[in-house]
Amino acid sequence: MFLCDYHIHxxxxxDAEGDYEEYIQEAxxxxxxxxxxxxxSPQYFLPERERKRESAIPEEELSTYIQEVEKLxxxxxxxxxxxxxxxxxxxxxxxxAMCSIVGFYSWDYLLLSVHYLDGWPFDHxxxxxxxxxxxxxxVYRRYYRTLKMGIxxxxxxxxAHFDLPKKFGFLATETIVEVEExxxxxxxxxxxxxxxxxxxxxPIGEAYPSFAILERANKLGxxxxxxxxxxxxxxxxxxxxxxxxxxxxAGFRSLVSFEKRKRTFYPL
Length: 268
Prior knowledge:
alpha/beta; TIM Barrel
């Protein structure tokens, strides 16, 4: 059975632990047939003096990251397929600098992420107190408007952790119409949704996206891939059995794999 994990972080990001081979060995033990390293992109949107390794690959090490994963791809050929991706934070107004990063290499796939709203890293535990100062419904609206802008660049392949603002359990208290707008935009721009199992281990206690969003995505004809968002080797492939069950229950019948931005579909 084809089983992929396309959201695995790299030791070159300061928030990830272990080495590449530990992640690969974990994947092999769990029967995963294809993995993709997708380190956090360099913080192109910040002044150089403010860029931090703790949540990104330093720009000067991007080529080293690629070389390291390419060597592992060759080493493990025939045992497990290793892909090279990048998780890119989208920040409105910084598209030109972003394109210099994504154009640096012929990636297998690019994950679209939104972690900042007007400079606020809203999913970072250090800044959780700001939720008490914000209108939670407006947080969701701003997030989805930003996500939609990222999709409309046409640069990306996959939307990572689609409903990330729920991470700490702060839920919208009214219908957020922007969710449907973003899903429609995904269809228009042929974007794949990621089922990200890291959400099971956060205060919200459920995958990204929610089951309701998965059902709607299926009705719109969107496709799926899987991601653990692993920052430690033991997290590779976590709760994939539950994720596959959710996908089937929502009506999905296939998973997507990527090679140099080209897609192949495998039955669930």
